[in-house]
Each structure stands twice: as structure tokens, then as C-alpha cells.
Amino acid sequence: MFGYYLEMALRSLRRNRMLTALMVLAIALGIGASMTTLTVLHVLSGDPLPGRSDALYRAQVDPRDSNGYEPGKEPMEQVSWTDGMNLLRAKRADRQALMTGGSVAIQPEQLALDPFYEDARFTSADFFPMFGVPFQYGHGWSSADDDSSARVAVISSELNNKLFGGGDSTGRTLRMQDIAFRIIGVLGDWRPNPHFYDLDVKNYGENEGVYLPLSTSQDLLFGHDGSNDCWGNGGGDQYHLKNAPCVWLQFWVQLDSPAKAVAYREFLVHYSQEQKNLGRFQRPPNVRLRDLMHWLDYNMVVPDDVRLQTWLALGFLLVCLVNTVGLMLAKFMRRAGELSVRRALGASRRALFGQLLIEAGVVGLTGGIGGLLLAFLGLWLVRQQPTGYAKLAHLDPAMLLVTFLLAVGASLLAGLLPAWRACQIAPALQLKSN
Amino acid sequence: MDILPILSTLRRHKITAWLLILEIALTCAIVCNAVFLISQRLERMRIPSGVAEHELVQIQLANIGNRPDAAARAETDLAALRQIPGVQQAALTNQLPLSSGGSWNSGVKLEPQQQLDTANVVQYMGQNLLPTLGTRLIAGREFRPDEFVDYADAVAALQSGNMKGLPQTLVITQALAERLWPGRSALGRPLYFGQGIPFRVIGVIANLARPNMLEKGAEYSTVWPIRLNLTQGASYLIRCAPQDREQILKAALAKLKQLDPRRVVLEKRTWDEARYEFFQSDRAMASILVGVCVALLIVTALGIVGLASFWVSQRRRMIGVRRALGATRSNILHYFQTENFLLATVGIGLGMVLSFGINLFLMTHYELPRLPAIYFPVGALLLWLIGQLAVLGPALRAAAVPPVVATRSV
Predict the structure, then answer these.
(1) DSSP per residue, B249-280
(2) So what's the ipTM on this one?
(3) Which residues of B touch A116 (CB under 8 A)?
């Protein structure tokens, strides 16, 4: 029966080629646009560290003076050197890392390569185990290396490919800013997106090429990159921020259970109170402890334009669907005579309904396949855009399934009303008028 | 034209008619708001920079390792750059108007004891910056050479609390002056930064846009008499004739490399390129919106064509009868045109309400202004026009139906 209905549907669709093409095209355009924007939205609002993000928290305290204080205002997003080091040394979390961005001149040994600047991350030992960073060769540094400001470096696999042809470079020397560092680790494939741990440097895109102990970078006066937010009289350039009233470091902690998170929050309040008693802080304790996904939400990391484009595409899909429903309805109603004859000859309403739905389904499926192709084209276009997230715009299996379901669902929805209406026709009336 | 028979026909195709109305309404609402968004983007892209746009070239270099002699080298570099034939001015600057990347900003106060900042301003610094940028002075004066302070000295002064080591004077934009002292002259007035450190306004320039964060006041800019060097991330800025830019960029790079080969070039571009890059996402968004509008209008128009064709072929007999009873071709033509006009009018009416609603949503979520009233009549005209154009073909076909059809059985 299904085969027969399918053949009938194809016959009917072939009768009005232009109209069929119009319906298929409308569905394909609507689905293509929606899937492109939904995929971009899905990729951009994804979890950078699946399985780990629940236990990772960004800690915030408010070290500012009382000038401009308003109760209920958010504390500063980053921490100062003093607070960062205090919290790091307190070791009250399961793991903790203090970090900032930077940029270092790399001086390759090969004469063929000119010196170049590479984005760097200055951080502390727990960065690697806490974020679950995979290593291709070697390992991260220890907290003893942090304490002794060791001249050690971890590099990304891209940089390793560029400098050492992808071989095991651990133990080799890397000259940066005229200073020799020993490579102790090469990262594996690690590209968490969004760039959650420091959104001021960038929201999306490639990770840093070089990782150095924060203490080493400060001893050697490596300038920092990223946001630097000061209060009071401010002061301090990017090389001398240790004593300036400025926040410029990101502090992340790992807390393995909700109870520990509650306890850590208390600790932050106690710490703030203690600093206030010492006269360093002037405001009442004002702390935040957001987990990774809430941190991304709070920072509104998904660009407004992407959300707007998604709304726009869904609106477009709606118009395309209404258009298709209208055309399909007109088409089915025009066949009232044919349908009435079939009813009079004994076909049940149900059978006619099924047959018309199959016809609608064929249109939807073809439109869906067209939409999928358009979505691939759309995502290719997105990847040509000069934005940081451009390279991430790929269709993953989950979104592929969503596309498929959306296409079939949309077309069935579009077929349902016309098919139902066409089945309501009273056969006698139609037959008489003919 | 009598519309009653049309209404009675439409009543027999209620669902189809309502679907067409709904489609027109949605298209009207989306297109109105999309065009408004496009106009917002275009307006943003037209913002005046206040600088000699087509005459500027930027070169950013970074040292390898720490350089204690960076300040002296900066002066040598600038002197050498000025000697290149065709170079009119050369400066160092911490940032450029309308360019992506970071920016240096600060809160500013009108009273030393004030709790909250009056405005957030951007801080331009660098030796010889104003003459090189080509800003237009409209009151007061530009900086004298003796007013300049080295950036490192200013930082040291701040940290030691010795305010004498800081610069004393500022140049601000007219927009900022108007924001701080509406209707009064800004010259000689004090402005307070940090914990009430005073600076005196000595000059007002017509325009100078921020590098970014335009939402904080696109023209709230201050210029400081502070000397920079490469270690602070400063760029060389060169002014020359527009046609010389490419050649001067090459010559300047060669000269800087010759003076000190141990430096890495981080940026080399004309200011026009920087501006083009800065507005790239606005341009992309505007073209996406244009594409969606065009696609929507085409889909809607084709939908109208499709439905009208159906109705025409469905009513062939009726048309034939009417023709046989004396209706002229133009009667039939007008019938379908009027029918479309009626449907479009109801759709547009609904669409106006809907576009107002969408605009309210955008206003709360995307900080967009209210949709100007002019969009409503223009949008209505556009949709009427498209509806009439789309229905013309099917209506002409209907008018061509011969009266003899009435006498034939189906």
C-alpha cells in the first residue's frame, strides 16, 4: 500500500512541477538557514570541558576601596596578584590555578625561521591536571617549579610541529625573550571552546602556544596581555602589576562535590572579612563562586549577532512553512473531485489521509535533504567569516539528527492541516457539482 | 469595484486565505525589523573617526627581551621615519580610533570627592599624536613639548604618590566637553581621575572616535601629553599623502628594520584597513539581513503567485460564466487584483502589530531603539506593490479565459 501511495504522490507532484519545486525550495531554504544558525549557536554555547565543567569554579572577591560602592554590585571578575597568591597558597580547594595571558617572542634555533611572537599562558602547576589537559610528550610542571620560578615550558602540538617537526622535543631548549627555557611537555589535541579560562583575551579560537610558570614570567618581567582593571589611582604598567591596585589574573578552582563548593564559598567570605580587618579591603565581603557554564552565561559569551541570526532564521522557516501549507492546501483542495471519487468507491478517510500525508512527506523529505545541503553551504560561508569562532562551525552528529527530525517534522506539520482539510470534503457534494 | 462578491468567495477558502494573510503579516514584520537593523548597522559604520582617514599608516613592532634603552630608541626611530621622503608626520600611539584589539579607558569625575564616575573615557597617548592624526582643534591649543611626560615616569609618580610627576593638561573631544559641561566652554576646567587627581582641559578637538566599546560614548575621548615607546605596546603612526601609503609603509619597515633588526613586526597596515576590519562583523550582519529580506520577499511573492494560479484555474468556469454574462476582461483582472489587495491589507495590518511586538522584544534584549514610524507606511507600500506584481500574471491569465468556457462541461 505504501509503495502505491508513494507512486501516486510522485505522480501528483510531477503534475505541477513548478509548484512542487516551489514548495521544496521554500522548505529547503527555511531548514538550511535554521540549521546553519542553530548549529553555530549550538557550537558556541557548548561545554568546553565536558565531564569536568561541573567541578570547575571561577572565584571572585571584591578588593576595591569604598569609593563608588553600591550594595549588590558584582565583585571584580579577576583577582589582584596579592589575593591570587594568597588564595593559591591557601590550597583550600581540590585543585587551584592562578593565571594570566601574555605574548612572548620565540627565537627558533633554525636560521630559516625568523623570530615571532606567540600567545602564552602564565599559570601555576594545577592548570594541567585541573583542566584535564592531554599531553603528547612529557608532562606539566610541579608546584616546586612554581616556587623556584623554574625556566621550564610546555608548548602546544602546533608549535611543536612548527619548531621541531612534531618530534619529541622534551628536554630541548627553547629561547624566548632572550632566555633559555627547557621544554618539559608537549600538549596533545586540546582546544576547549569557548576560551573559558580567560574570556578577555578571546572568546573563541586557538589556544596558546606556550605555557610558563606564572612566577617565572613575573621574575623575568614578561608583560601580561588581557584585561587589567584598576581602582583608586591605578598605576603600574603591564610589567609591574604586583603591587598595583589592579586585577589582572584569573583564579580557577576545582571542587569535587557541592558540599566542598559551599565550604569554599564560606572560605572566600572569611578571607574577604580577614582582608577587611587588615585594612586591605574596604568593602563588605562580596564573593562569587560560579561554575564554568554559569561563568560563560554570566559573561554572555555567545555573540548577540548569533542569537539574532537564529531568531531571524526561525522566523524565515516559519514563513516558508506557512507558504508551503498554503500551497499544499490549495493543491489538495483542487483534487477534491478525485478524492471524492475515491471516497465514493470505498476508500476510507484514513486511507486518503495517509496517502496525502505521504505526498506531504515526500515534499518535506526532499526539502529536508535540500536544507541539509544548504546548511553545509551555509556553514561553509560562516567559516569564511573573519571571526574567532568561524573555524568551529561544523555540523556534528547530534545537529545532523536534529536537522533530519526538523525537516521531517516540519513537512509533516505542513502536510497535516491540508490533508485533514481535504479529507473533510463531503464526497456527494463534490460529485454532484461535477 | 464591488468587494462583496470577493469576500463571499474568500469565505469559501477561509483557511487558505488566512494562511496567505499570515504569510504576508510575518514577512512584513520580519522585513520591517530587518531593514531597521540594517539601517542601524549602516549608521554605526558611518561614524566619523575625526582623523585624516586616508593618510595614515600604522606599524607595530615588539622588542625581543627587555630593552632599557627603549625610550631613546623611540626618539631615534621617529626622527628616522620623519626623514623618509613623503612622510608628513610621525608619532607613537597606544591605540587607533575604530580598530579592534584592546583599549585604554578610565572613569572621569567632575569633583574630586565624587563617588561615581561621570563618564567612561578613552585615553589616547603618544608624542606628536594630534598633528599626525589630523584632528581639528576648535578651541584652546594643542600640547607644548614641555608638557610631555614619559609613560614610565608617570607610572612611577602614581605609585610613589608624587603627583608632580604626572602630566597636568588634557585635550578632549567636543562630544565629551558637551557631555561634561553642556553649553559651556571646557577650556581651563579641571577633570578628575582616580582618587581625585586633577587635570586641566587646554584644548577641544572636533572629533576623535574611540577604538572600540562605542556603546560607552563613541566620541568620549581624551588625549594625554605622555611619551610612549615600544615596550608599552605602542605603534608607530605615519601620515602621508594617500597615494604614497603603500610605498611609505615599505620604506618605513625597511628603515625600522635597519635601525634595529631584533624586532618583530606585529602589525603593518593603513588606517583604512583597520577601519574596514573593525566593521567587518557589521558588514557581514548587514549583508545576511539583506539576503534574508530578499529571500523572504521572493518566497512570499512566489507563494502569492502559486495560490493565485490555483484559484484562477479553480474558478475558470465561474470566470467563463461571468464573461458570458457581460463582464469585461478588465473586470476579471480587477477582481483578482482587488482580492489580492484585500488580503494584503489585512496581512499588512496584522504585520504592523507584529513588527511592533518584535521591535519591543529587540529593544529589551538587544538595546535597539524604537522602530521609526516611517517604516510602517513604507513597509505597507512595499508589500502592496509586491502583492500586486505577484498577482498580475495569474490575473492576466484569468482575464484571458474565453466566455465559451461557460458552455463546456468539465
Answers:
(1) HHHHHHHHHHH-SSEEEEEEEEHHHHHHHHTH
(2) 0.86
(3) 264
**Beta-carbon count within 10 A of B407 CB:** 9
Nearest CA in chain A to B159: A235
Residue spans per domain, chain B? 4-46+281-407, 53-277
Taking the CA of residue A15 and the nearest CA in chain B, the distance in Å comes to: 13
- DSSP notation for B279-333: THHHHHHHHHHHHHHHHHHHHHHHHHHHHHHHHHHHTHHHHHHHHHTT--HHHHH
Where b means 16+ CB within 10 Å and e means fewer, B117-129 reads: bbbebbbbbbbbb
CA distances from B52 to B135, B137, B219, B239 (A): 7, 13, 16, 8
Torsion of CA A225, B229, B121, A238, to 10 degrees: 30
Nearest Cα residue in chain B from A324? B303
- HSE (CB half, 13 Å, CA atoms) of B370? 4
Taking alpha carbons only, the member of B217, B196, B218, B200 closest to residue B209 is B218
Q: Find, in chain A, the residue whose alpha carbon is nearest to that of B161.
A: A233
Angle of CA points A64, A68, A71, to nearest 5°: 85
Chain A residues in contact with B16 (beta carbon < 8 A): 326, 329-330, 333
Name the residue among A296, A276, A242 with its Cα closest to residue A77.
A296
Q: What is the pTM of this model?
A: 0.87
For chain A positions 85-104, those within 8 Å of chain B (CB to CB) are: 103
Of the candidates B22, B151, B158, the beta carbon closest to that of A234 is on B158
Interface of B with A in 288-327 (CB under 8 A): 288-289, 292, 295-296, 299-300, 302-303, 306-307, 310-311, 313-314
Per-run averaged pLDDT (10 residues), chain B, 410 residues:
78 85 94 93 92 95 86 94 95 93 88 90 95 95 94 87 88 96 94 91 96 90 94 93 95 94 92 93 90 92 88 85 89 91 94 93 86 90 93 92 75
Dihedral class, residue B124 (left if φ above 0, else alpha if ψ from -120 to 50, else beta): beta
Is B302–A22 a contact, with Cβ atoms under 8 angstroms apart? Answer: yes
